[in-house]
Amino acid sequence: MLIVMKADATEREVENVVRIVTELGLRAHPLPGAQRTAIGITGNHGAVDATRFETLPGVAEALRVSKPYKLITLDLKPEKTIIRVGDATIGGDELALIAGPCAIESRAQAFAIAEIVRRSGARFFRGGAFKPRTSPYAFQGLGEEGLRILADVREAYGLKIVTEAMDEHGLDLVEKYGDVVQIGARNMQNYSLLRCAGRSRLPILLKRGLSATLDEWLLAAEYIMAEGNYNVILCERGIRTFAQHTRNTLDLAAIPAVRRVSHLPVVMDPSHGTGKNYMVTPLARAGVAVGCDGLIIEVHDQPERALSDGAQALTLEQYEQLVPEVRAIHEVITPAHVA
Amino acid sequence: MLIVMKADATEREVENVVRIVTELGLRAHPLPGAQRTAIGITGNHGAVDATRFETLPGVAEALRVSKPYKLITLDLKPEKTIIRVGDATIGGDELALIAGPCAIESRAQAFAIAEIVRRSGARFFRGGAFKPRTSPYAFQGLGEEGLRILADVREAYGLKIVTEAMDEHGLDLVEKYGDVVQIGARNMQNYSLLRCAGRSRLPILLKRGLSATLDEWLLAAEYIMAEGNYNVILCERGIRTFAQHTRNTLDLAAIPAVRRVSHLPVVMDPSHGTGKNYMVTPLARAGVAVGCDGLIIEVHDQPERALSDGAQALTLEQYEQLVPEVRAIHEVITPAHVA
Amino acid sequence: MLIVMKADATEREVENVVRIVTELGLRAHPLPGAQRTAIGITGNHGAVDATRFETLPGVAEALRVSKPYKLITLDLKPEKTIIRVGDATIGGDELALIAGPCAIESRAQAFAIAEIVRRSGARFFRGGAFKPRTSPYAFQGLGEEGLRILADVREAYGLKIVTEAMDEHGLDLVEKYGDVVQIGARNMQNYSLLRCAGRSRLPILLKRGLSATLDEWLLAAEYIMAEGNYNVILCERGIRTFAQHTRNTLDLAAIPAVRRVSHLPVVMDPSHGTGKNYMVTPLARAGVAVGCDGLIIEVHDQPERALSDGAQALTLEQYEQLVPEVRAIHEVITPAHVA
Amino acid sequence: MLIVMKADATEREVENVVRIVTELGLRAHPLPGAQRTAIGITGNHGAVDATRFETLPGVAEALRVSKPYKLITLDLKPEKTIIRVGDATIGGDELALIAGPCAIESRAQAFAIAEIVRRSGARFFRGGAFKPRTSPYAFQGLGEEGLRILADVREAYGLKIVTEAMDEHGLDLVEKYGDVVQIGARNMQNYSLLRCAGRSRLPILLKRGLSATLDEWLLAAEYIMAEGNYNVILCERGIRTFAQHTRNTLDLAAIPAVRRVSHLPVVMDPSHGTGKNYMVTPLARAGVAVGCDGLIIEVHDQPERALSDGAQALTLEQYEQLVPEVRAIHEVITPAHVA
To answer: For residue D70, how far is the Cα from the chain centroid?
Structure first.
């Protein structure tokens, strides 16, 4: 941590800060500069709340230097984490494709889509049984009946099931029927849920919150890992900005930013990230080009009749065109990306 | 809803949209314009997901016109809601003052602060027993022990207790010890928690999420009300923007915006909304001037030693100066505001 | 400046950074910590571009500590600047009211509005002759003819004229006819224009850019002052955020933030800041409560027929109600604010 | 345009809106719905300022439907624009590479970088002679001397010169020495400069403003085209958001969004778009994958000694690795993208 004194701070004010820092068991290093004095702080084992010093007399500002996370870092584990779900992987050499409808609406719908997903060579099937909807009056998902359909899709097609849990009860049910638990963007800082997820035996796919900074997202993963579950997959799905031509703004720079500090795999969701059918394919390509470990793609056999998020679902034909394109880009960047 | 066709949309494409709309049991009104045709849709009783029409051939965009909420609206209940907590109110003529520390740290701390809060004439005491913290390694609150201290503060000073619940279990405990349940910004779209809150017998203070639009915030209130609990207090506490000179950007225009559509009372939290001690007083004044029904203010007897959010807490002295100022402004605007 | 090394940075990498810093004529202070080494830099007389060090081997990040501005600071000039325009002031004890239409549309319109503005006791009349419009097909203002009308308003009512210049030529004309030159939000970083403004003999009202940070805004003022014109008035007029219930989000916390570092006066524009007629009065009240030195208010005699920004203009009646309210709030906070 | 009446609007209020609309020479189409009446407006030839109707009694809101631009649209010109600069093109089959330093610092620097740029097969050289800097005390560029060096680079290497003009005077000079005029992000709404650019004989590379919506950006291009210069290249270079792990947030979805409405070519600047050396290569790959017509890349022979933006410049080696990667991705997507 670094405490920056005001230009007109007195000797006494500097001494007072040094004294308080020392009383807290830390070490203070005053650095007189041309314009003002700064005081470096060392000796802290975890993160210290820097801002508390900002109200002391003579202090201009306090900057945190140490990062508050540990388990997610490359410092702790320099090799990349590969999540294994049966014989499929996320984070390894293979590009992970997770495809399916936004919500499970019926057995017929799920099977029609799963057929195409399986045929594309994807290993994961997504579909919501519990849907977090902005309005209480919108379709909320089929609940456990939806999960049973998903389990049957797995049985029939050998696809691994990725599905969302919105609370502890839902998490128990997903553990019973699914393979990977999704924590949605709106729950990224639902710490009670993150702690439950940390005690699950399944991998957790953690979506970035709409207004989450990189540190907040990584700390949400840290919450899960701190409970003992190290199988966390990060998912970039767009952030909220002033831009209105998309539902959210996909922040692709988050992928190299995560890579630089963390060993966790990171995937991207161009469907929720754009909210527009015609943008999904170009952004999916971009996601692979930037170095994602996988993609989550919404596919629907009848998008114009979908009970939720129809505007962003690919048709089966569009999805079938997408897959070879993103595989080809993955091929191109793989050596560069590994290097 | 309004569907806007592309400039080069064919007659057939317009007819196709009209047909699909009609099949869904709605009525379509084509409006040919100089440059393009628009199609008005009527007959829907709830909100229709407009975006699903965007992928139909010839459609440029689809605009939702009807608002998706009901219970929160002035259309439904033209007179303002007044929340009664014992003999105190929020939303009536009185300016509601809710003051106290960010987190309950000890009995001594709580009582030292409550003494001053009581003396200022405030009717509500705030303080967290369960703290949602960005890092799993930060102080998480005293839990039920903190709630017991709060109950003792009520006993000793007659202050009503406002405190946060982060999950169903916490909500049960707050019902046991407190008077008003706070739902924090991070949980504003934790729909499972909102539904539980909707079944509580206590009023709910619902903080706006960091990136919540006005509609999303009002729909979160609608979730609670749809379960039968009509005692909801909205709380503006700042949104996330690019600006870095404050922790969040207080969106004071949200207050008249809420007033224009909803009967629910709305308060403001200048402490979390700015994150800086020296900004709390001016922004508290602004909150009252803009028409808030109350303020939530963090106060601490020793801010530099606070276990959380020390940088934004007022000292006891600063708090005591603040109260008469905001009361005087409330006085000035009251007739105007009522008019 | 502070350079933070990676946790696994080697002794050599630290030495290399120290060597480069020293070669640049600065002094390096290595601070070994429990987890990583930080290197404090002193001896720089201006701001050093910190980020250039970020690509050196072993460096995690580089943080700038010194602020890059000088002339705007309280460090340089501890007493507040009062701008004098004839016998009127901005920044002194008086609340400066600057009112008038968005654009000058005709002599009749300007005089009808000026009559009411004068009667309210305001000292400044605003109105655009050159209008920066998002579309090239929208009304662009009356040009020099508009300035002549403004000069006649001054003559007739004794009001000081505040009007925008969009380029060097416009600035020459405003110097000829007006009293205060407005630089609009879109031109806040038009550095050629700022330099011209710095050579003007008139005070400059500098609007904050839609996405300007506090530092960028203050540095734009610094550009003007660096050319020798010290009469700069800052104007908060809303920033661009995700929120859609207003045209912009007024950032009222910017007012105390400016006060803390700068001696320049700061006013607020609730008309452009909200874009909605019904929000102007409550936000004007809030602006005064937060400590602004003045308000810029759009008033129109026939808002529904205005050639630009009709939705945000107050009617003459609304304006006449507003003035005593904001004056009363100014009265309430004046002692507190001075203290 | 669509005017939405309040749920409790009276028959008279609806009639009043219809009357005013009719008086303005437009046609009103009232559409009574289950909850409220909407009024469609047709007959307008340009855009009507919708918001002016919002203050009429009984009106809830007014939505603009027609887009305000013409010349940039695919409606007007369905085939994509290809900009020809001598024998090089932007917008055709070829991926346009525009590389060079942020600022021209010396002849030696410019030539050392141009050598590598030429060898990579790029056709365009970039470098600033006039630098818009946030601080008046930062290096502002070599001015005309820098332009002369650029002209010599063209002479020596046959590269086309892309360089920024900040005002009318600079534009005259760039016309004398350069091949493509860049309008920077800060000047995107400097309408006086846009009009000058519209009278230039050179193509204009128009960077998106930091907080520009898609419509505002396209309207800035419309300003240039409305003066007669149809050779406009759009450049996405990142927007300002809350995210702090990058200098700006690259909005890659803007590329397909532009494609959907406009015939103009669009390139991307991953250097300014991220501000971090290690992110430039992955984001450059993503830019090509999403369908950009070209890339602007900052390259420096000694990034740690650069006079501006050193942190984001690629080294010569990094640049030489990047080129074959982005070419390979361009190859992969070309058929898909054309289709």
So the answer is: 17
CB within 8 Å: C211 and D210: yes
Q: What is the pLDDT of residue B30?
A: 82
Is the Cβ of A68 closer than 8 Å to some Cβ of chain B? Answer: yes
Q: Which of A21, A55, A240, A315 is most worth mutating to test chain B (most B CB atoms within 10 A of its CB)?
A: A55
pLDDT at D55: 80
Q: Which residues of chain B register pLDDT less than 50?
A: 336-339
Residue-number span of the structural domain to which A46 is assigned: 2-63
| Same-domain pairing of A30 and A130 | no
- Give A336 or D227, the one with higher predicted confidence: D227
CA distance A243 to chain C (A): 7
| pLDDT computed for residue D3 by the predictor | 85
Structure tokens at C277: 């007629």
Tell whether B332 lies on the interface with D, counting CB pairs under 8 A. no
Q: What angle do CA D172, D178, D184 make, to 5 degrees?
A: 75
CA distances D161 to D86, D207, D273, D328, Å, are: 11, 16, 21, 25
In a domain, D108, yes or no: yes
Identify which has the larger pLDDT, A48 or A137.
A137
Residue B337: the pLDDT is 46
Overall domain count for chain C: 2
How far apart, in Å, do the first and last CA atoms of chain A sit? 34
Q: Do B45 and B131 fall within a single domain?
A: no
Instruction: Tell me the ipTM for this assembly.
Output: 0.90
Pick the range with the lowest mean pLDDT from A125-139, B81-95, B117-131, C185-199.
Answer: A125-139
Q: In angstroms, what CA-CA distances link C27 with A64, C17, C18, C61?
A: 22, 11, 8, 18
With CA atoms as reference, the chain C residue closest to A61 would be C65
| Residues of chain A positioned with their CB less than 8 A from the CB of B173 | none
Q: Is D242 on the interface with B (CB under 8 A)?
A: yes
- Confidence (pLDDT) at A267: 98
pLDDT at B44: 67
pLDDT score recorded for residue B115: 97
Distance, in angstroms, between D170 CA and closest chain A CA?
A: 31
Q: How far is C177 from chain A (nearest CA, A)?
A: 38
Cα distance between residue A96 and residue A179, in whole Å: 14
Å between C143 CA and nearest CA of chain A: 32
Q: What is the pLDDT of residue D339?
A: 39
Summarised one tens digit per residue, pLDDT across range C260-315 is: 999 999 999 999 999 999 999 999 999 999 999 999 999 999 887 777 777 889 99
Cα separation, A248 vs A272, in Å, equals 7
Same-domain pairing of B153 and B31: no
Compare all CA atoms of chain C with the CA of D247 and give the residue at the minimum distance. C51
Q: How far apart are CA A279 and CA C217, in angstroms?
A: 35
Residues of C in contact with D136 (CB under 8 A): 191, 219, 222-223, 226
Question: A313 in contact with D at a CB cutoff of 8 Å?
Answer: no
Residues B139 and B20 in one domain: no
Cα B263 off chain centre by: 13
Q: State the pLDDT at residue A338.
A: 43
Q: With respect to residue C246, please indicate whether it lies within any of the assigned structural domains.
A: yes
CATH number for the domain including D237? 3.20.20.70
Q: How many residues does chain D have?
A: 339
The burial of B82, by beta-carbon neighbours within 10 Å (0-12 exposed, 13-18 middle, 19 or more buried), is given as middle
A residues 200..229 contacting D (CB < 8 A): 211, 213-214
B positions 111-150 inside 8 Å of A (CB): 132-138
CA dist C175 and D29 (Å) reads: 49
pLDDT at C27 over 60: yes
Q: What CATH number does residue B22 fall under?
A: 3.30.70.1140
D257 has pLDDT over 70: yes
Q: How far apart are CA B126 and CA B121, in angstroms?
A: 14
